[in-house]
Design a protein that fits this description.
The chain is an alpha/beta fold. It contains 7 helices and 6 strands.
Length: 209
């Protein structure tokens, strides 16, 4: 697992990575034009290597200020931000909900208290488009992470208020029905990816579930 930029890998570093049977790399980097030669070289050195894009579950990065750079070199990151900005989650005090520094959590429950299918479709549409437009970039994704309720990192101390996705006045930690819908969204999301991209598209679910 390599969490950071790999655009500057030289031949030695690339060859070391190619020895792995499974590599997990940031999905926005995998879909970058700056990664094409490195990924092609990994596959040349080890045709059996499988590359997974690290895909955060229900969270989006805060937008990098240089959007021109993102548009050119990290288009997934910019497009994912705009595709999901109508689904930001808010706490009971109106604060933007975040589980990790520099990220924004997404609300997976619709106004009827059900898994939000529109959000699923929007993300899966985008994933399918990138996989088809950039063949060989990834062989699958690692979801980080599947959970029964949102986990807030101890490094994140700037969230005010509680989480109540279904807006029934009961925080998710005390609402078993809400937790069930929250978990069902994640399972339906993974099933939608499999339905759209096929059994051969690898999915690994990190987390509690």
């Amino acid at each position: 697992v390599h969490w950071r930029d790999f655009f500057e890998w030289d031949e030695v570093k690339t060859a070391e990575a190619a020895r792995a049977g499974l590599l997990i790399l940031p999905i926005e980097r995998c879909f970058s034009p700056l990664a094409e030669d490195i990924i092609a070289r990994i596959r040349e050195l080890n045709p059996d290597a499988r590359i997974l894009g690290y895909l955060g579950m229900l969270h989006v990065k805060e937008l990098y200020p240089d959007t021109a750079y993102l548009e050119r070199y990290l288009p997934w990151e910019l497009e994912f931000y705009h595709a999901t900005e109508d689904y930001w989650a808010w706490t009971t005090t109106g604060d933007t909900f975040s589980v990790w520094p520099g990220s924004i959590f997404l609300d997976p429950i619709d106004g009827d208290g059900q898994p939000d299918r529109t959000l699923i479709t929007r993300i899966v549409d985008m994933l399918e488009k990138y996989v088809n437009e950039r063949p060989g970039a990834i062989d699958g994704v690692m979801h980080d992470y599947f959970m029964y309720q949102p986990y807030v990192s101890p490094y994140n101390d700037n969230v005010d208020g509680l989480v109540d996705f279904d807006d029934n006045g009961i925080p998710i930690g005390e609402d078993a029905d809400e937790r069930a819908v929250f978990l069902r969204w994640q399972k339906d999301y993974a099933a939608a990816i499999r339905s759209r991209l096929g059994q051969g598209f690898i999915q690994i679910a990190n987390g509690e579930v």
